Amino acid sequence: MRRPSFKSGVHPFEGKMYSEGKEIVSVEPSDIMVYPVNQHIGAPATPLVKVGDRVLKGMKIAEASSFISSPVFSSVSGTVKALEKRTMINGNESMCIIVENDFEDECAEGFGDVKNPDDFSNEEIINIVKESGIVGLGGAGFPTNVKISPKNADNIDYVIVNGSECEPYLTSDYRLMVERADEILKGVSIALRLFKNAKAVIGVEDNKPKAIEVLQEKCKNYNNISVMSLKTRYPQGGERRLIASVTGRKINSHMLPADAGVVVLNTATSYAIYDAVCNSHPLIHRVITITGDGANSPCNVDVPLGVSHEYVVEKCGGLKDETVKIISGGPMMGMAMPGLDFPVIKTSSSVLALTKDDVEQMQPTACIHCGRCVTACPENLVPQLMAAASNAKDYERFETLNGMECIECGCCTYVCPAKRPLTQTFKLAKVQVRASKVVK
Question: Strands 158-162, 262-266: parallel, antiparallel or unpaired by DSSP?
Answer without folding.
Answer: parallel
